[in-house]
Amino acid sequence: VFLFSCNAGLLELSLGKFRNVVLNRSSPVEAVTRDIASNVTVIVFQVHAQQSDVVISFDKHPSVNSSGIGVDKGLVSILRLQQTVCTWYLRALDVSQVLSTAISIPYMERDPIPGGCNLEFDLEVDPNIYLDYTLVDTHIKFAPANLGYARGANPPSCDSGTAQNSRWRLRYDVYQYFLPENLLSEMVLMSHIQKMSEVQSIKANGIKMLSLTTDDKTNVYFSSLPGQGVIYNVIVWDPLWNTSAAYIPAHTYACSFADLVDNCSTLSKPSTKVFFTTLAVLGLFTCFFGHRFWKTDLFFMGFIFAAFFFFVFITRITGLGYDVRLILTAAAGIVGGLLLVASWWRFGSVLLCMYFIGLVLGFLFSSVVFFTPLGDYRVFHDDVVFWVTFSSVALMIPVLFVGCPRILNIMASGIVGSYTVILAIACYVYTSLSYITLDLLRRILNDYFSRAYTNVPFQRNDFIILSVWTMLALSGVTVQLRQERSKVPFPPHPYLTWKRERERRSTNVLDPSHHIPPLRERISNKLLHIKEFFHKEQPAGERTPLLL
């Protein structure tokens, strides 16, 4: 339960209890925690806002070394002997009013101190997680912790060696927590940030992504999820005393609330919606009738294959805008689809066409495999291991189905066609299923994306859309199997069929088609017939009515 509190600029805080407060720029709020027990040696004070920066400080007039600015900021107060009261100051940085929530968390002398061995940031003891993001990845970093110590004692040295009696025995667990999908309000964040602030609630609600030792760098990368709220935190653990402490949780939506275009409420550009909606219409048709309309199926698969690799190519070598690249990609996809159809018409090779179709299905299947938690194993952060494994899984599909190409084609058209519908839905409603292929595209286009952990939320929307995908794919495969069970596996070679028909007509004089005039003469006769139809009959001499 949250209470709004701020009487005459004073915010009374009880240890471990959240309080909501509205901050303004002109007058700071004094936050006070009283009646601190003698066994408490450290208090971590923190404040959180959704999008507007707040200033937090030890003094009413903050200085660089005694304050912090941001949406998720905290301070560590090292208690003196006999100290029972702690005071901090809060105010908004730029805007007139900011809704925020604050809490003070106590720790004992054996608990590690988050950020106690800070050498990089301004605060002497810095418990904050510093977060920055791009549309591709999110980067968090934090200062190393120190061992806890009693009130009035000197802090343990941060550079006294790597023995087990130093900070080098500490371990760091990085946690991730997803806010509910499509909910971007301040109150949603305020109600969920509390679940990632204290050690026990972090372990109960967060997802443990990885563990670091003191030898590892204290920075981690994650894939960005624009429009999806994510909270990160770190628990530092002392294995000797089996005690833990939490850093200050940091949140991001990987987007801007203030931008008029491409903000957190806009899931995709209009050009993206047009592209994937059009592709979904063709994909839905292919899902149910792909094998029956063989050339349409070839065009669809050739479009996907050519468009994907052309988009990668043009993005890496040019600096063109996104909309221009998407138009060129669509054009390249059309050319690729037509080329695959033309190759079938000229060569009639089922194996060649099924190789491309099998690769498209294998590509999607391998992407699904690495979309699971398997993809976040550290071994796959190595590009060589990842691409060798990914290619092997993708090539496995056409190899396994080499003896039954019709089944392969029906499965490919059903599964791939239905997935394009999911991509179109993702343009209008947030779903993590779009990241099946998007994270792979990010890895191809960005040299350093391999270091990012690609975990995504799987919530109610995702279960519904996954059910839609499964239903469409199963229905499409079932309908096509029933349609094609009594027909030949594939249509005959079109070029040879045309050639044999032409030779037959030229040699068999008994065949009525032998006497059909050439195409040019038929067109000329047709045009002449149309011209005569509109020609007005001229009078031929005098005309009189018949006399009875």
UniProtKB/TrEMBL annotation:
Q: What is a biological process (GO) this protein takes part in?
A: negative regulation of programmed cell death
- Entry keyword annotation includes Transmembrane: yes
Q: How does it sit in the membrane?
A: Multi-pass membrane protein
Residue ranges crossing the lipid bilayer per the database entry:
274-291, 298-318, 324-345, 352-372, 384-404, 416-438
Task: Tell me if Transmembrane is a UniProt keyword of this record.
Answer: yes
* Location in or out of the cell: Membrane
Domain (TM7S3/TM198-like): give its ranges. Answer: 277-481
Keyword annotations from UniProtKB, A to Z: Membrane, Transmembrane, Transmembrane helix
Where mainly located? membrane
One GO cellular component this record assigns the protein to is: plasma membrane
The protein here is known as Transmembrane 7 superfamily member 3
**Naturally occurring in which organism (per UniProt):** Dryobates pubescens
